[in-house]
Amino acid sequence: MRVTVVGTGYVGLVTGACLAHLGHDVTCVDTAPDRVAAVNQGRPPFFEPGLEEILAAAIHAGRLRACDSAAAAVAASDIAMLAVGTPSRQGEIDLSYLSAAAEEVGKGLRDRGGYRVVVVKSTVVPGTTDTLVRGILERASTLRAGEFGLAMNPEFLREGSAVADFLEPDRIVIGEWDQGSGHVLADLYRSFDCPKVFTTLRNAEMTKYASNALLATLVSFANEFAALCEATPDTDVEEVLTGLFLDRRLSPILRGERVVPGILAYLRAGCGFGGSCLPKDVAALRDFARKRGLTPRLLDAVEAVNTARPLQLVSMTEEALGSLRGASIAVLGLAFKPGTDDLRDSPALAVIAQLRERGAEVRGYDPLISAASSAIPGIQVCRSAKEALAEADAAIVVTAWPEFAELDWSDLCRKMRRPVLIDGRNALRSAGIPDEMTLVSIGRHFEPEGAAIVN
Ligand code: NAD
Questions:
Q1: 423 lies in which domain range?
Q2: In this structure, are 126 and 7 located in the same domain?
Q3: 374-412 pLDDT tens trace
Q4: Does the Cβ of 10 fall within 6 Å of ligand 1?
Q5: Distance (Å) of CA 22 to CA 25, 81, 156, 362
Q6: Which residue has its alpha carbon closest to ligand 1 atom 44?
Q7: Whose C-alpha in 2, 13, 111, 199 is 20 to 30 A from the C-alpha of 70?
Q8: Which of 39, 99, 276 to mutate to test the pocket of ligand 1 (most atoms within 8 A of CB)?
Q9: Pairing of strands 25-29, 253-254
Protein backbone atom coordinates (compact mmCIF):
# COMPACT_ATOMS: atom_id res chain seq x y z
CA MET A 1 0.00 0.00 0.00
CA ARG A 2 1.08 3.62 -0.44
CA VAL A 3 1.56 5.21 2.95
CA THR A 4 2.44 8.76 3.98
CA VAL A 5 3.82 9.20 7.50
CA VAL A 6 3.81 12.78 8.79
CA GLY A 7 6.57 13.43 11.35
CA THR A 8 9.94 11.67 11.21
CA GLY A 9 10.57 11.33 14.95
CA TYR A 10 10.93 8.05 16.84
CA VAL A 11 7.42 6.93 15.99
CA GLY A 12 7.08 8.32 12.47
CA LEU A 13 10.44 7.26 11.10
CA VAL A 14 10.37 3.82 12.72
CA THR A 15 6.83 3.30 11.38
CA GLY A 16 7.82 4.47 7.90
CA ALA A 17 11.02 2.43 7.72
CA CYS A 18 9.35 -0.71 9.08
CA LEU A 19 6.38 -0.46 6.70
CA ALA A 20 8.81 0.00 3.78
CA HIS A 21 10.78 -2.99 5.09
CA LEU A 22 7.55 -5.00 4.88
CA GLY A 23 7.11 -4.01 1.23
CA HIS A 24 4.88 -0.93 1.39
CA ASP A 25 5.65 2.26 -0.52
CA VAL A 26 6.31 5.01 2.03
CA THR A 27 6.73 8.77 1.94
CA CYS A 28 7.95 10.36 5.17
CA VAL A 29 7.11 14.03 5.72
CA ASP A 30 8.71 16.49 8.08
CA THR A 31 8.77 20.27 8.38
CA ALA A 32 12.42 20.21 9.53
CA PRO A 33 14.58 20.41 6.37
CA ASP A 34 17.61 18.79 8.08
CA ARG A 35 15.47 15.78 9.00
CA VAL A 36 14.17 15.41 5.44
CA ALA A 37 17.74 15.57 4.08
CA ALA A 38 19.06 13.08 6.64
CA VAL A 39 16.26 10.58 5.95
CA ASN A 40 16.81 10.81 2.19
CA GLN A 41 20.48 10.01 2.79
CA GLY A 42 19.47 6.98 4.86
CA ARG A 43 20.68 8.55 8.13
CA PRO A 44 18.20 8.53 11.04
CA PRO A 45 18.34 11.92 12.83
CA PHE A 46 18.53 10.10 16.21
CA PHE A 47 19.99 6.88 17.55
CA GLU A 48 17.77 3.81 17.44
CA PRO A 49 19.22 0.29 17.17
CA GLY A 50 18.63 -1.36 13.78
CA LEU A 51 16.90 1.68 12.24
CA GLU A 52 19.77 2.83 10.03
CA GLU A 53 20.02 -0.58 8.34
CA ILE A 54 16.34 -0.89 7.40
CA LEU A 55 16.10 2.79 6.46
CA ALA A 56 19.10 2.60 4.13
CA ALA A 57 17.80 -0.63 2.58
CA ALA A 58 14.33 0.89 2.03
CA ILE A 59 15.80 3.96 0.32
CA HIS A 60 18.09 1.82 -1.81
CA ALA A 61 15.09 -0.30 -2.87
CA GLY A 62 13.15 2.88 -3.78
CA ARG A 63 10.41 2.09 -1.24
CA LEU A 64 10.97 5.13 1.01
CA ARG A 65 11.63 8.81 0.46
CA ALA A 66 11.20 11.98 2.52
CA CYS A 67 9.77 15.39 1.61
CA ASP A 68 8.39 18.48 3.31
CA SER A 69 4.90 18.58 1.78
CA ALA A 70 2.28 16.44 3.43
CA ALA A 71 -0.42 17.65 1.01
CA ALA A 72 1.50 16.43 -2.05
CA ALA A 73 2.44 13.13 -0.44
CA VAL A 74 -1.11 12.43 0.79
CA ALA A 75 -2.57 13.11 -2.65
CA ALA A 76 -0.58 10.10 -3.90
CA SER A 77 -1.25 7.76 -0.93
CA ASP A 78 -3.86 5.30 0.33
CA ILE A 79 -3.11 5.96 4.00
CA ALA A 80 -1.83 9.07 5.84
CA MET A 81 -0.46 8.57 9.34
CA LEU A 82 -0.04 11.48 11.73
CA ALA A 83 2.98 10.87 13.97
CA VAL A 84 3.97 14.38 15.07
CA GLY A 85 4.82 15.35 18.63
CA THR A 86 2.15 16.06 21.25
CA PRO A 87 4.26 17.67 23.98
CA SER A 88 3.17 19.16 27.27
CA ARG A 89 2.70 22.92 27.72
CA GLN A 90 2.20 23.87 31.37
CA GLY A 91 0.73 20.44 32.00
CA GLU A 92 -1.69 20.61 29.08
CA ILE A 93 -1.37 18.59 25.87
CA ASP A 94 -0.11 20.79 23.04
CA LEU A 95 -1.99 19.80 19.90
CA SER A 96 -0.61 22.57 17.68
CA TYR A 97 1.73 20.26 15.70
CA LEU A 98 -1.07 17.78 15.20
CA SER A 99 -3.46 20.52 14.06
CA ALA A 100 -0.95 21.89 11.55
CA ALA A 101 -0.21 18.40 10.22
CA ALA A 102 -3.94 17.57 9.95
CA GLU A 103 -4.49 20.78 7.97
CA GLU A 104 -1.88 19.74 5.39
CA VAL A 105 -3.22 16.20 5.21
CA GLY A 106 -6.74 17.59 4.69
CA LYS A 107 -5.52 19.64 1.71
CA GLY A 108 -3.99 16.46 0.28
CA LEU A 109 -7.33 14.65 0.60
CA ARG A 110 -9.01 17.46 -1.35
CA ASP A 111 -6.42 17.34 -4.11
CA ARG A 112 -7.38 13.83 -5.20
CA GLY A 113 -10.67 12.01 -5.00
CA GLY A 114 -11.23 8.45 -3.81
CA TYR A 115 -11.40 6.91 -0.37
CA ARG A 116 -8.23 7.34 1.71
CA VAL A 117 -7.64 6.76 5.40
CA VAL A 118 -6.16 9.20 7.90
CA VAL A 119 -4.66 7.55 10.97
CA VAL A 120 -3.69 9.34 14.18
CA LYS A 121 -0.63 7.59 15.63
CA SER A 122 0.39 10.40 17.97
CA THR A 123 -0.67 10.00 21.60
CA VAL A 124 -3.73 12.23 22.08
CA VAL A 125 -6.29 12.65 24.84
CA PRO A 126 -9.65 10.92 24.23
CA GLY A 127 -11.89 12.89 21.91
CA THR A 128 -9.06 14.53 19.96
CA THR A 129 -9.42 12.41 16.82
CA ASP A 130 -13.20 12.60 16.46
CA THR A 131 -13.43 16.32 17.27
CA LEU A 132 -10.26 18.35 16.59
CA VAL A 133 -8.66 16.18 13.90
CA ARG A 134 -11.94 15.31 12.18
CA GLY A 135 -12.98 18.98 12.15
CA ILE A 136 -9.71 20.15 10.61
CA LEU A 137 -9.71 17.37 8.02
CA GLU A 138 -13.31 18.04 7.00
CA ARG A 139 -12.73 21.77 6.66
CA ALA A 140 -9.43 21.48 4.78
CA SER A 141 -10.63 18.71 2.46
CA THR A 142 -14.24 19.91 2.04
CA LEU A 143 -15.20 16.24 2.52
CA ARG A 144 -17.19 14.58 5.33
CA ALA A 145 -15.58 11.91 7.55
CA GLY A 146 -16.78 8.67 6.02
CA GLU A 147 -15.90 9.96 2.56
CA PHE A 148 -12.38 9.63 3.89
CA GLY A 149 -11.53 7.07 6.56
CA LEU A 150 -10.50 8.11 10.07
CA ALA A 151 -8.70 5.86 12.55
CA MET A 152 -6.68 6.08 15.75
CA ASN A 153 -3.87 3.58 16.06
CA PRO A 154 -1.75 4.25 19.16
CA GLU A 155 1.90 3.27 19.11
CA PHE A 156 3.42 1.24 21.95
CA LEU A 157 7.05 1.02 20.80
CA ARG A 158 9.83 1.76 23.27
CA GLU A 159 12.86 3.86 22.42
CA GLY A 160 15.94 1.65 22.37
CA SER A 161 14.00 -1.32 20.95
CA ALA A 162 11.63 0.58 18.68
CA VAL A 163 12.25 -1.38 15.46
CA ALA A 164 11.82 -4.76 17.15
CA ASP A 165 8.77 -3.51 19.04
CA PHE A 166 7.15 -2.25 15.84
CA LEU A 167 7.86 -5.42 13.86
CA GLU A 168 6.76 -7.74 16.67
CA PRO A 169 4.04 -5.91 18.56
CA ASP A 170 2.17 -7.39 21.53
CA ARG A 171 -1.07 -6.08 20.05
CA ILE A 172 -2.36 -3.60 17.52
CA VAL A 173 -5.17 -1.34 18.68
CA ILE A 174 -7.30 0.21 15.96
CA GLY A 175 -9.93 2.78 16.78
CA GLU A 176 -12.21 3.34 13.80
CA TRP A 177 -14.62 6.12 12.92
CA ASP A 178 -15.91 4.11 9.98
CA GLN A 179 -15.63 0.40 9.21
CA GLY A 180 -13.76 1.10 5.98
CA SER A 181 -10.77 2.52 7.84
CA GLY A 182 -10.65 -0.58 10.08
CA HIS A 183 -10.60 -2.79 6.98
CA VAL A 184 -7.79 -0.78 5.38
CA LEU A 185 -5.66 -0.98 8.54
CA ALA A 186 -6.40 -4.69 8.94
CA ASP A 187 -5.02 -5.08 5.44
CA LEU A 188 -1.94 -2.93 6.19
CA TYR A 189 -1.14 -5.01 9.28
CA ARG A 190 -2.16 -8.36 7.74
CA SER A 191 1.31 -9.90 8.16
CA PHE A 192 1.46 -9.09 11.89
CA ASP A 193 0.79 -12.18 13.96
CA CYS A 194 -0.62 -10.57 17.11
CA PRO A 195 -4.04 -9.79 18.59
CA LYS A 196 -5.76 -6.87 16.87
CA VAL A 197 -8.30 -4.89 18.83
CA PHE A 198 -10.91 -3.01 16.80
CA THR A 199 -12.65 -0.42 18.91
CA THR A 200 -13.85 3.18 19.07
CA LEU A 201 -11.51 6.09 18.47
CA ARG A 202 -11.78 7.15 22.10
CA ASN A 203 -11.09 3.67 23.47
CA ALA A 204 -7.95 3.52 21.32
CA GLU A 205 -6.84 6.93 22.63
CA MET A 206 -7.60 5.94 26.24
CA THR A 207 -5.81 2.56 25.90
CA LYS A 208 -2.51 4.31 25.22
CA TYR A 209 -2.90 6.45 28.35
CA ALA A 210 -3.89 3.43 30.44
CA SER A 211 -0.73 1.69 29.30
CA ASN A 212 1.61 4.59 30.09
CA ALA A 213 -0.18 5.50 33.33
CA LEU A 214 0.28 1.93 34.58
CA LEU A 215 4.01 1.97 33.79
CA ALA A 216 4.44 5.34 35.52
CA THR A 217 2.46 4.10 38.54
CA LEU A 218 4.70 1.04 38.90
CA VAL A 219 7.83 3.22 38.84
CA SER A 220 6.42 5.54 41.49
CA PHE A 221 5.19 2.61 43.58
CA ALA A 222 8.74 1.21 43.71
CA ASN A 223 10.13 4.67 44.42
CA GLU A 224 7.68 5.20 47.28
CA PHE A 225 9.18 2.07 48.88
CA ALA A 226 12.69 3.32 48.09
CA ALA A 227 11.89 6.49 50.05
CA LEU A 228 10.38 4.47 52.92
CA CYS A 229 13.49 2.27 53.11
CA GLU A 230 15.79 5.29 52.93
CA ALA A 231 14.05 6.58 56.06
CA THR A 232 14.15 3.22 57.88
CA PRO A 233 17.42 1.72 59.17
CA ASP A 234 18.00 -1.97 58.39
CA THR A 235 15.82 -2.02 55.31
CA ASP A 236 16.85 -2.31 51.69
CA VAL A 237 14.40 -1.77 48.83
CA GLU A 238 16.21 -4.31 46.64
CA GLU A 239 15.60 -7.08 49.17
CA VAL A 240 12.03 -5.96 49.70
CA LEU A 241 11.36 -6.06 45.93
CA THR A 242 13.06 -9.45 45.61
CA GLY A 243 10.65 -10.79 48.22
CA LEU A 244 7.73 -9.12 46.48
CA PHE A 245 8.60 -10.47 43.02
CA LEU A 246 8.67 -14.08 44.25
CA ASP A 247 4.90 -13.94 44.60
CA ARG A 248 3.78 -16.36 41.87
CA ARG A 249 1.14 -13.92 40.78
CA LEU A 250 4.00 -11.59 39.76
CA SER A 251 6.45 -14.22 38.50
CA PRO A 252 4.60 -17.44 37.68
CA ILE A 253 6.29 -20.80 37.47
CA LEU A 254 5.65 -22.38 34.07
CA ARG A 255 6.91 -25.90 33.32
CA GLY A 256 9.15 -25.74 36.39
CA GLU A 257 10.76 -22.41 35.39
CA ARG A 258 10.07 -19.07 37.00
CA VAL A 259 9.01 -16.52 34.41
CA VAL A 260 9.95 -12.91 35.08
CA PRO A 261 7.48 -10.71 33.17
CA GLY A 262 8.90 -7.63 31.46
CA ILE A 263 6.51 -5.39 33.40
CA LEU A 264 8.59 -6.01 36.55
CA ALA A 265 11.37 -3.92 34.95
CA TYR A 266 9.20 -0.90 35.80
CA LEU A 267 8.78 -1.96 39.43
CA ARG A 268 12.31 -0.85 40.28
CA ALA A 269 13.66 1.85 42.54
CA GLY A 270 15.52 4.61 40.75
CA CYS A 271 15.58 8.34 40.23
CA GLY A 272 12.24 8.52 38.49
CA PHE A 273 10.74 8.03 35.05
CA GLY A 274 11.55 10.43 32.24
CA GLY A 275 11.64 10.48 28.47
CA SER A 276 9.35 11.82 25.81
CA CYS A 277 6.25 9.91 26.90
CA LEU A 278 5.54 9.00 30.54
CA PRO A 279 5.95 12.47 32.13
CA LYS A 280 3.97 14.33 29.48
CA ASP A 281 1.31 11.63 29.18
CA VAL A 282 0.72 11.54 32.94
CA ALA A 283 0.48 15.35 32.87
CA ALA A 284 -1.94 15.32 29.93
CA LEU A 285 -4.15 12.71 31.58
CA ARG A 286 -4.25 14.64 34.88
CA ASP A 287 -5.26 17.76 32.99
CA PHE A 288 -7.83 15.77 30.99
CA ALA A 289 -9.34 14.43 34.25
CA ARG A 290 -9.49 17.89 35.85
CA LYS A 291 -11.26 19.32 32.81
CA ARG A 292 -13.92 16.64 33.38
CA GLY A 293 -14.39 17.69 37.00
CA LEU A 294 -12.39 14.75 38.40
CA THR A 295 -9.50 14.84 40.84
CA PRO A 296 -6.93 12.34 39.53
CA ARG A 297 -5.58 11.47 43.00
CA LEU A 298 -3.54 8.46 41.95
CA LEU A 299 -1.93 10.24 39.00
CA ASP A 300 -1.25 13.32 41.14
CA ALA A 301 0.61 11.10 43.60
CA VAL A 302 2.51 9.29 40.81
CA GLU A 303 3.73 12.64 39.55
CA ALA A 304 4.60 13.96 43.04
CA VAL A 305 6.65 10.85 43.89
CA ASN A 306 8.44 11.14 40.57
CA THR A 307 9.30 14.81 41.01
CA ALA A 308 10.78 14.09 44.45
CA ARG A 309 13.22 11.38 43.31
CA PRO A 310 15.90 13.45 41.50
CA LEU A 311 15.85 15.91 44.42
CA GLN A 312 16.33 13.02 46.86
CA LEU A 313 19.43 11.94 44.92
CA VAL A 314 20.87 15.42 45.23
CA SER A 315 20.06 15.53 48.96
CA MET A 316 21.84 12.18 49.44
CA THR A 317 24.90 13.61 47.68
CA GLU A 318 24.77 16.72 49.84
CA GLU A 319 24.51 14.64 53.00
CA ALA A 320 27.46 12.50 51.96
CA LEU A 321 29.64 15.53 51.20
CA GLY A 322 28.41 17.88 53.92
CA SER A 323 27.84 20.63 51.36
CA LEU A 324 27.54 20.94 47.61
CA ARG A 325 28.81 24.51 47.43
CA GLY A 326 31.93 24.51 45.24
CA ALA A 327 31.86 20.71 44.89
CA SER A 328 32.65 19.09 41.57
CA ILE A 329 30.09 16.40 40.72
CA ALA A 330 30.22 13.86 37.90
CA VAL A 331 26.82 12.80 36.56
CA LEU A 332 27.04 9.43 34.84
CA GLY A 333 24.26 8.92 32.33
CA LEU A 334 22.33 11.81 30.82
CA ALA A 335 19.70 10.20 28.58
CA PHE A 336 16.46 9.14 30.26
CA LYS A 337 17.35 5.45 29.94
CA PRO A 338 20.13 3.27 28.52
CA GLY A 339 20.07 2.55 24.78
CA THR A 340 18.86 5.97 23.66
CA ASP A 341 20.27 9.47 23.25
CA ASP A 342 16.92 11.06 24.10
CA LEU A 343 17.29 13.74 26.77
CA ARG A 344 13.65 14.78 26.89
CA ASP A 345 12.48 15.02 30.50
CA SER A 346 15.46 12.95 31.61
CA PRO A 347 15.84 12.77 35.42
CA ALA A 348 19.48 13.79 34.80
CA LEU A 349 18.26 17.27 33.83
CA ALA A 350 16.48 17.71 37.17
CA VAL A 351 19.49 16.33 39.07
CA ILE A 352 21.87 18.69 37.25
CA ALA A 353 19.65 21.75 37.72
CA GLN A 354 19.34 21.05 41.45
CA LEU A 355 23.08 20.39 41.88
CA ARG A 356 23.88 23.70 40.21
CA GLU A 357 21.28 25.52 42.26
CA ARG A 358 22.98 24.22 45.41
CA GLY A 359 26.35 25.55 44.20
CA ALA A 360 28.00 22.51 42.60
CA GLU A 361 29.94 22.44 39.36
CA VAL A 362 28.75 19.58 37.13
CA ARG A 363 30.41 17.41 34.51
CA GLY A 364 28.44 14.75 32.69
CA TYR A 365 29.07 11.68 30.62
CA ASP A 366 26.78 9.49 28.55
CA PRO A 367 27.89 6.86 26.03
CA LEU A 368 25.52 8.24 23.40
CA ILE A 369 25.77 12.00 24.03
CA SER A 370 28.60 13.70 22.16
CA ALA A 371 31.13 15.77 24.12
CA ALA A 372 30.43 18.52 21.56
CA SER A 373 26.80 18.59 22.66
CA SER A 374 25.48 21.81 24.10
CA ALA A 375 22.11 20.18 24.81
CA ILE A 376 22.52 20.68 28.56
CA PRO A 377 23.47 24.28 29.32
CA GLY A 378 25.90 24.98 32.16
CA ILE A 379 27.68 21.64 32.24
CA GLN A 380 30.67 20.15 30.51
CA VAL A 381 29.88 16.91 28.65
CA CYS A 382 32.95 14.63 28.80
CA ARG A 383 34.27 12.02 26.38
CA SER A 384 34.53 9.28 29.00
CA ALA A 385 33.47 8.40 32.52
CA LYS A 386 37.12 8.67 33.51
CA GLU A 387 37.31 12.28 32.29
CA ALA A 388 34.11 13.17 34.15
CA LEU A 389 35.32 11.57 37.36
CA ALA A 390 38.80 13.18 37.44
CA GLU A 391 39.10 15.29 40.61
CA ALA A 392 35.37 14.92 41.31
CA ASP A 393 34.02 15.13 44.85
CA ALA A 394 31.25 12.69 44.05
CA ALA A 395 29.77 10.75 41.16
CA ILE A 396 26.07 10.14 40.69
CA VAL A 397 24.83 7.32 38.46
CA VAL A 398 21.58 8.54 36.94
CA THR A 399 21.20 6.22 33.92
CA ALA A 400 21.85 2.50 34.36
CA TRP A 401 24.18 1.99 31.40
CA PRO A 402 25.63 -1.55 31.81
CA GLU A 403 29.11 -0.19 31.02
CA PHE A 404 29.14 1.77 34.30
CA ALA A 405 29.16 -1.53 36.22
CA GLU A 406 32.15 -2.66 34.17
CA LEU A 407 34.37 0.36 34.91
CA ASP A 408 37.57 -0.13 36.88
CA TRP A 409 36.28 1.54 40.04
CA SER A 410 39.50 0.88 41.99
CA ASP A 411 41.37 2.97 39.44
CA LEU A 412 38.64 5.63 39.18
CA CYS A 413 38.48 5.92 42.96
CA ARG A 414 42.11 7.12 42.98
CA LYS A 415 41.34 9.76 40.32
CA MET A 416 38.56 11.34 42.39
CA ARG A 417 39.13 14.07 44.96
CA ARG A 418 36.66 12.42 47.31
CA PRO A 419 35.57 8.88 46.47
CA VAL A 420 31.83 9.20 46.97
CA LEU A 421 29.54 7.28 44.65
CA ILE A 422 25.77 7.76 44.65
CA ASP A 423 24.10 4.89 42.83
CA GLY A 424 20.81 6.34 41.68
CA ARG A 425 19.73 3.13 39.94
CA ASN A 426 21.22 0.45 42.19
CA ALA A 427 23.21 -0.62 39.16
CA LEU A 428 26.60 -0.95 40.87
CA ARG A 429 25.95 -3.15 43.86
CA SER A 430 27.86 -6.06 42.37
CA ALA A 431 30.34 -3.95 40.42
CA GLY A 432 33.35 -4.46 42.69
CA ILE A 433 33.27 -1.03 44.31
CA PRO A 434 36.43 -0.79 46.46
CA ASP A 435 36.11 -0.39 50.24
CA GLU A 436 37.78 3.04 50.12
CA MET A 437 34.73 4.38 48.26
CA THR A 438 31.64 5.57 50.04
CA LEU A 439 28.82 3.89 48.10
CA VAL A 440 25.41 5.40 48.73
CA SER A 441 22.67 3.19 47.30
CA ILE A 442 19.13 4.39 46.83
CA GLY A 443 16.46 2.60 48.82
CA ARG A 444 18.79 1.97 51.72
CA HIS A 445 19.26 4.01 54.86
CA PHE A 446 22.38 6.14 54.61
CA GLU A 447 24.11 7.30 57.77
CA PRO A 448 26.60 10.07 57.11
CA GLU A 449 29.45 10.01 59.65
CA GLY A 450 28.47 11.65 62.95
CA ALA A 451 24.74 11.70 62.21
CA ALA A 452 22.21 10.85 64.92
CA ILE A 453 20.50 7.48 64.52
CA VAL A 454 16.74 7.55 63.91
CA ASN A 455 14.92 4.31 64.64
P1 NAD B 1 9.40 13.52 17.90
O2 NAD B 1 9.36 14.81 18.62
O3 NAD B 1 10.61 12.64 18.00
O4 NAD B 1 9.15 13.78 16.35
C5 NAD B 1 8.10 14.55 15.87
C6 NAD B 1 8.47 14.99 14.46
O7 NAD B 1 7.35 15.63 13.87
C8 NAD B 1 9.63 15.98 14.40
O9 NAD B 1 10.61 15.51 13.50
C10 NAD B 1 8.98 17.27 13.91
O11 NAD B 1 9.85 18.07 13.11
C12 NAD B 1 7.83 16.72 13.09
N13 NAD B 1 6.72 17.66 12.87
C14 NAD B 1 6.17 18.54 13.75
N15 NAD B 1 5.16 19.19 13.16
C16 NAD B 1 5.06 18.72 11.89
C17 NAD B 1 4.19 19.00 10.80
N18 NAD B 1 3.20 19.89 10.89
N19 NAD B 1 4.40 18.34 9.65
C20 NAD B 1 5.39 17.43 9.53
N21 NAD B 1 6.24 17.11 10.55
C22 NAD B 1 6.07 17.76 11.70
O23 NAD B 1 8.12 12.72 18.36
P24 NAD B 1 7.98 11.17 18.76
O25 NAD B 1 8.77 10.88 19.96
O26 NAD B 1 8.16 10.34 17.54
O27 NAD B 1 6.44 11.14 19.18
C28 NAD B 1 5.42 11.33 18.24
C29 NAD B 1 4.10 10.95 18.90
O30 NAD B 1 4.12 9.55 19.22
C31 NAD B 1 3.83 11.66 20.23
O32 NAD B 1 2.46 11.88 20.36
C33 NAD B 1 4.31 10.67 21.28
O34 NAD B 1 3.65 10.82 22.50
C35 NAD B 1 3.92 9.36 20.62
N36 NAD B 1 4.73 8.21 21.04
C37 NAD B 1 6.09 8.34 21.20
C38 NAD B 1 6.84 7.23 21.57
C39 NAD B 1 8.33 7.35 21.79
O40 NAD B 1 8.92 6.42 22.35
N41 NAD B 1 8.98 8.44 21.40
C42 NAD B 1 6.21 5.98 21.75
C43 NAD B 1 4.84 5.89 21.54
C44 NAD B 1 4.10 7.01 21.19
A1: 219-455
A2: yes
A3: 789 899 999 999 999 999 999 999 999 999 999 999 999
A4: yes
A5: 9, 16, 19, 46
A6: 155
A7: 199
A8: 276
A9: unpaired
